[in-house]
């Protein structure tokens, strides 16, 4: 490499933090240290820009170099061929503040791989084949600004992956094919400002967020769930804002919010909701504000209990049943409920406010008995799968069949 080029790289480095990204992307090979008089020899396949900044981005590098000096604060192993990170892989580099492991062919992170790094502030692992975050992989990280795990192939986060990891600003899991959030996936992660999850989540196990305490924002968006199960949020405590948005939430089961505690704002916005067995936020949940806005509910909720300081229920689309007073809807808990929410069905009144649709029985006109029967039958069919597993639903099916036949 021409010397002036090297100098230019160095200047660039000193001038701008963005230089880091450039260096990682450049893919250049081993060169001698820049300050041989001051620095100990630089490891093979690395460029030691100073005693504190080292870039080792050669694909010939296998594993974390063991001969790096303990003074290193910024280390990039991007584009190295790391494959497996063993436990305590960086324990000889206690001064590390920034660690980039992008595109480093990582497939496994052993428990406590990052232990012994009290000063680490930024950790980047992106564009790797990493498919699971195993238990304790990120355990024992403290006071980190960001753990960025986007653009990997993470399909699963095992229980306790982040155990004992406190005071984090951001954990990003964007752009990963995560389909399921397992129970206790975030257990032991405390005081995190924001957790970013990918879109496309298809199941959340009960207690998925148990043991997660002190979250600024937890946003669950673009999910495709069959149901929001009982105890989904049990053990989640101290949340600034919990948002369920732009998702198919399926059926909200009895007790979905049981055991959730101390939430400033709970939002359910712009979701499709097939049915609500129960929507209960009781005093023990200590939710300050609840916002239910812009949702499409295919059936009226069966039971709603909102022991919450502030409630907003507006812009939702709900069934307008023929001859039924909209204020009989269990959600009719706010002053302008009938004006601020709309009919989703029947077709004739779709999109009209609940208040206007009920005037003079507008919802009833053009609704023959036959179609009501068809709806009931369709509902029974959809329930049948669950009914086989859940005896109490078998009763519902029987009841629906009875009404359909009457
Ligand atoms: C990545 O690791 C695999 C083995 O896990 C190896 O076969 C492959 O050559 C590595 N690729 C690169 C680019 O280092
Ligand atoms: C992390 O921050 C907390 C609160 O600011 C502090 O009490 C703790 O000592 C810090 N831990 C480390 C390892 O720096
Ligand atoms: C309310 O929360 C407290 C504290 O977690 C718990 O001990 C108590 O059993 C809960 N009460 C009810 C009625 O669920």
From TrEMBL:
<dbReference type="InterPro" id="IPR032675">
    <property type="entry name" value="LRR_dom_sf"/>
</dbReference>
<dbReference type="InterPro" id="IPR001611">
    <property type="entry name" value="Leu-rich_rpt"/>
</dbReference>
<keyword id="KW-0732">Signal</keyword>
<feature type="signal peptide">
    <location>
        <begin position="1"/>
        <end position="29"/>
    </location>
</feature>
<keyword id="KW-0677">Repeat</keyword>
<dbReference type="InterPro" id="IPR003591">
    <property type="entry name" value="Leu-rich_rpt_typical-subtyp"/>
</dbReference>
<keyword id="KW-0433">Leucine-rich repeat</keyword>
<dbReference type="InterPro" id="IPR051295">
    <property type="entry name" value="LGI_related"/>
</dbReference>
<dbReference type="Pfam" id="PF13855">
    <property type="entry name" value="LRR_8"/>
</dbReference>
<protein>
    <recommendedName>
        <fullName>LRRCT domain-containing protein</fullName>
    </recommendedName>
</protein>
């Amino acid at each position: 490499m021409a010397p002036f080029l090297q100098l230019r790289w160095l200047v660039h480095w000193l001038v701008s933090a963005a230089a880091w990204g450039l260096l990682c992307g450049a893919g250049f090979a081993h060169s001698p240290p820049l300050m041989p008089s001051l620095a100990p020899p630089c490891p093979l396949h690395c460029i030691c820009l100073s005693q504190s900044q080292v870039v080792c981005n050669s694909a010939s590098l296998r594993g974390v170099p063991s001969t790096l000096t303990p003074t290193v604060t910024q280390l990039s192993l991007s584009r190295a061929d790391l494959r497996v990170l063993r436990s305590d892989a960086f324990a000889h580099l206690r001064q590390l503040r920034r660690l980039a492991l992008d595109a480093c062919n990582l497939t496994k992170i052993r428990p406590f791989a990052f232990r012994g790094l009290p000063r680490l502030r930024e950790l980047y692992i992106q564009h790797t084949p990493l498919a699971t975050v195993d238990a304790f992989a990120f355990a024992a990280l403290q006071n980190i600004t960001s753990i960025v795990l986007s653009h990997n192939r993470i399909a699963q986060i095992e229980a306790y992956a982040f155990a004992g990891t406190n005071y984090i600003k951001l954990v990003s899991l964007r752009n990963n094919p995560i389909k399921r959030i397992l129970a206790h996936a975030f257990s032991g992660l405390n005081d995190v400002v924001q957790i970013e999850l990918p879109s496309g989540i298809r199941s959340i196990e009960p207690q998925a967020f148990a043991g997660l305490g002190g979250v600024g924002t937890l946003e669950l968006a673009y999910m495709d769930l069959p149901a929001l199960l009982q105890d989904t949020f049990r053990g989640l405590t101290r949340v600034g804002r919990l948002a369920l948005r732009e998702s198919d939430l399926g059926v909200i089961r009895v007790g979905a919010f049981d055991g959730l505690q101390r939430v400033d704002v709970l939002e359910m916005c712009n979701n499709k909701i097939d049915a609500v067995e129960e929507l209960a936020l009781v005093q023990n949940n200590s939710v300050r504000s609840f916002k239910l806005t812009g949702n499409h509910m295919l059936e009226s909720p069966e039971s709603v209990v909102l022991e919450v300081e502030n409630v907003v229920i507006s812009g939702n689309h709900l069934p307008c049943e023929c001859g039924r007073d909209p204020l009989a809807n269990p959600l009719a808990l706010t002053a302008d409920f009938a004006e601020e929410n709309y009919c989703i069905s029947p077709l004739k009144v779709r999109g009209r406010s609940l208040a206007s649709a009920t005037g003079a029985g507008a919802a009833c006109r053009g609704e023959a008995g036959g179609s009501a029967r068809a709806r009931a039958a369709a509902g029974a069919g959809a329930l049948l799968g669950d009914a086989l597993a859940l005896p109490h639903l078998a009763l519902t099916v029987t009841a629906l069949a009875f009404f359909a036949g009457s």
